[in-house]
Automatic annotation (TrEMBL):
Species of provenance: Asbolus verrucosus (Desert ironclad beetle)
A single GO molecular function term of this UniProt record: glutathione peroxidase activity
Family (UniProt): Belongs to the GST superfamily. Sigma family.
Assigned EC number: 2.5.1.18
Protein's UniProt name: glutathione transferase
PROSITE patterns: GST_CTER, GST_NTER
């Protein structure tokens, strides 16, 4: 039975799992529902959230856990527990950055949002990206273990969403991260997925 991945009609938090399944040639049903249908769908979702992943009558939630599972299926994990820890630490760091950006992006009070803008763009984002860029430089062009892992695909798959929330290309000045993005997007299976996936802004 093929996997069934359900999410809004965007890339965002479901895209890392889509990247990973595509990388491994694993068939999955990419279900995208319109936002106006969310009130009817939400009560049936675990903890009222998406994305969800279904397989063999089972339902899983939490986007990072789903991506980690997909990574195991396509053999983009570490060779031992410590290597997995290194990868997980990078993925968690990326999500720390995502949450800080989201705190700004989704703020509805314009005064509060404006107050958060300068610290985010002048301090927080550079703090994270400088360090991630350095990690890529020290790891032969990758985010962990000196080779391609699911951390690389996770970051690149999420990047469009991060850029959307910020309204700019946040890695433009970080050459190692730009090179990593290009490396991932040139993987034939990823390139094919990006070309055929539904169009969206985030």
């Amino acid at each position: 039975m093929a996997y069934k991945l359900t999410y809004f009609p965007v890339e965002a938090l479901a895209e890392p799992t889509r990247f990973l399944f595509s990388y491994g040639g694993i068939d999955f049903e990419d279900v995208r529902f319109e936002r106006e249908n969310w009130p009817q769908i939400k009560p049936n979702m675990p903890f009222g959230q998406v994305p969800i992943l279904e397989h063999d009558g089972k339902v899983a939630h939490q986007s990072v856990a789903m991506a980690r599972y997909a990574a195991k299926q396509v053999k983009l994990v570490g060779g031992n527990d410590w290597e997995d820890l290194e990868i997980d630490a990078i993925v968690d760091t990326i999500n720390d950055l995502r949450q800080k950006i989201a705190l700004y992006s989704y703020e509805t009070d314009e005064a509060i949002k404006e107050a958060r803008k300068e610290p985010l763009f002048k301090e927080t984002i550079p703090y994270y990206l400088e360090r991630l860029d350095g990690i890529v430089k020290a790891n032969d062009g990758h985010l962990a273990l000196g080779k391609l892992t699911w951390a690389d695909l996770y970051f690149v798959a999420l990047l469009k969403y991060l850029n959307f929330m910020c309204g700019t290309d946040i890695i433009a000045d970080y050459s190692n991260l730009v090179a990593l993005k290009n490396t991932v997007l040139e993987i034939p299976a990823i390139k094919a997925w990006v070309e055929k996936r539904p169009k969206s802004d985030l």
